[in-house]
Design brief:
Organism: Paenibacillus chartarius
CATH architecture of the largest domain: Alpha-Beta Barrel
Distance between the termini: 21 Å
Number of domains: 2
Keywords: Amino-acid biosynthesis, Aminotransferase, Branched-chain amino acid biosynthesis, Pyridoxal phosphate, Transferase
Order of helices and strands: EEEHEEEHHEEEHHEEEEHEHEEEHE
Strand content: 25-35%
Pfam families: Aminotran_4
CATH superfamily of the largest domain: D-amino Acid Aminotransferase, subunit A, domain 2
Helix content: 10-25%
Largest sheet: 9 strands, mixed
GO molecular function: branched-chain-amino-acid transaminase activity
Number of strands: 18
Number of helices: 8
Shape: globular
Radius of gyration: 21 Å
Bound molecules: pyridoxal-5'-phosphate
CATH topology of the largest domain: D-amino Acid Aminotransferase, Chain A, domain 2
CATH class of the largest domain: Alpha Beta
Structural class: alpha+beta
Cofactor: pyridoxal 5'-phosphate
């Protein structure tokens, strides 16, 4: 298949923000990618155009029934000046699994990867080069057909936008406090918890507000059926070091299959460590905290890569993990993952994909 992407360059490039003011997802680059879908015609008219608002009919199905999915990955400028993505094929595969669950037509993986490559290269000067900064890439699909019947849309747009993001840990990697949520649940197996679809995140905002009020950075979600098994931390997967074993919740259908999660499991096993993917209850976690076998806990996701957990709030109690600081394994995983992503260290897994 030859992939044709039409290119219309901006005539009015925007000023670049300072590295210090980047934050997360506040600034957007000069260009965006769009491809349309129409029933009978398939995906067509792939193009890179100046970053701009899109116009949709108020009846577009995405507004009413949330037929939409997204992805998130990062482009890095390596120490040798190369531009690289981290396992982008995994994002395209997950995007199509999400599409399938949300009754959205599949997008050829090669088209998605070529769109990513060309878009990142066109806006490569937007990739910040200060340590630990990157260009966050947000592909997403929306149902654009103007019709209020509850049925799969006959029209879609697949769009990619990009945002330079600052260092997640401006003052060094730092543990966060986590609120164990007992009132709200995020998802149940059979639903869409394993899909990066908008509604999951809107549904989580209320719990996040509660966590913030308690002085916590994120929510720890428990499963929706038994209200007992640990699922995820905010929008990150979660790992526990129990003695010398590492445990992470199994992919039961209600949690997201993180690419960082998968990479961390590979890495830990590569180091000869024992990793268990299984159910882990909040009781097991609190018991391990009390008897001292819970040594470390961390979240994994594209944005923060690794987020150490310093304490858990559960049933009015604050439980400190280890000595409350970033654990030794957590730090090693963080350094290695970011090292592979940015080319600081060798990549034995072939995860870093150079674009130029
Ligand atoms: C995106 C996401 C993750 C992390 O996935 P990565 O591929 O590692 O970025 C975990 N949980 C949820 C709910 C997510 O949306």
């Amino acid at each position: 298949m030859t992939i044709q992407i039409r290119i219309e360059r901006t005539t009015a490039p925007k000023p670049r923000p300072q590295a210090s003011e980047l934050g997360f997802g506040k600034y957007f680059t000069d260009h965006m990618f769009i491809v349309d879908y129409a029933e009978g015609k398939g995906w067509h008219d792939a193009r890179i155009v100046p970053y701009q608002p899109i116009t949709l009919d108020p009846a577009a199905k995405v507004f009413h029934y949330g037929q939409t999915i997204f992805e998130g990955l990062k482009a890095y400028r390596t120490e040798t000046g190369q531009i690289a993505l981290f396992r982008p094929d995994m994002n395209m595969k997950r995007l199509n699994r999400s599409n399938d669950r949300m009754s959205i037509p599949a997008i050829e993986e090669e088209l998605g990867l070529e769109a990513l490559r060309q878009l990142v290269l066109i806006d490569k000067d937007w990739i910040p080069d200060a340590p630990e900064t990157s260009l966050y890439v947000r592909p997403f699909v929306i149902a654009t057909e103007a019709a209020l019947g509850v049925s799969p849309s006959k029209q879609y747009q697949f769009i990619i936008i990009m945002s330079p993001v600052g260092s997640y840990y401006a003052e060094g990697i730092k543990p966060v406090s986590i609120y164990v949520e007992s009132e709200y649940v995020r998802a149940v197996a059979g639903g869409v918890g394993h899909v990066k679809t908008a509604g999951n995140y809107a549904a989580g905002l209320k719990a996040q507000e509660g966590a913030t009020e308690q002085g916590c950075a994120q929510v720890l979600w428990l499963d929706g059926v038994h209200r007992k098994y640990v699922e995820e931390v905010g929008s990150m997967n979660v790992f526990f070091r129990l003695g010398n074993k590492i445990v992470t919740p199994a992919l039961t259908g209600s949690l997201l299959s993180g690419i960082t999660r998968d990479s961390v499991i590979h890495l830990l096993r590569h180091w000869g460590l024992e990793v268990e993917e299984r159910l882990i209850s909040i009781d097991e976690v609190t018991q391990a905290q009390k008897d001292g076998s819970l040594k470390e806990m961390f979240g994994t996701g594209t944005a923060a890569v690794i987020s150490p957990v310093g304490s858990l709030y559960w049933q009015g109690e604050k439980l400190t993990i280890g000595d409350g600081s970033t654990g030794e394994l957590t730090l090693r995983v963080y350094e290695t993952m970011t090292g592979i992503q940015t080319g600081r260290i060798e990549d034995p897994f072939g995860w870093r994909v150079a674009l130029d």
